[in-house]
Amino acid sequence: MSLNPIPRLKGHGRRRAVDKVAELREENRRLFTRLMGADDAFALLHQQLADTAARQAEAEEIIVQQLANLDDLHAENEQLRDELAALKVRFGPELAAEANANAIAVPPMVRDTSAIEDQATQPIPVVTLAEAAAAGRLGPVTDPGHI
């Protein structure tokens, strides 16, 4: 491509016109190819936009359904709380009477501890490190649970 703004024409008279027509047809073909490529790209973008809009509409519908379900669950939860409060008021005295009737009234010093699950435990001695050192109970730690 030359920097001269005036195109250099080949041949004489009639031949120059034929060359110019061929050049213009080639330019038209190149521009038409670009136009078709741009049209394809535009069609792809338009399809992507339509897909995105469809997905957004679907997501919005799902959100509306979930919000409706959430509202229904909140209402059901409130109803169940009200029923629970009413049942506590109605059966509260019976539950208290049953708890009092089945209460363990045996003092700990009389309790039967012969079963393995009822074995008595002893209190765990809790002292500071300074007190343990003063008492001479600090040495090599062989059992981290005991000092």
Mean of all residue-level pLDDT scores: 82
Unreliable spans are none
Number of helices: 2
Radius of gyration: 47 Å
Helices and strands, in N-to-C order? HH
Beta-strand residue percentage? under 5%
Q: How many strands in all?
A: 0
- Helix % is 55-70%
Structural class: mainly alpha
What is the CA–CA distance across the termini?
A: 96 Å
Q: How does this model look, in words?
A:
It is a single chain. This protein has 2 helices and no strands. The protein is mainly α. The radius of gyration is 47 Å and the shape is elongated. The relative contact order is 0.03. The mean pLDDT is 82.
Question: What are the SSEs and their pairings?
Answer:
Blueprint: H1 14-101, H2 129-134
From the structure above, extract its key features.
single chain, elongated
Short description:
The protein is mainly α. It has helices at 14-101, 129-134.
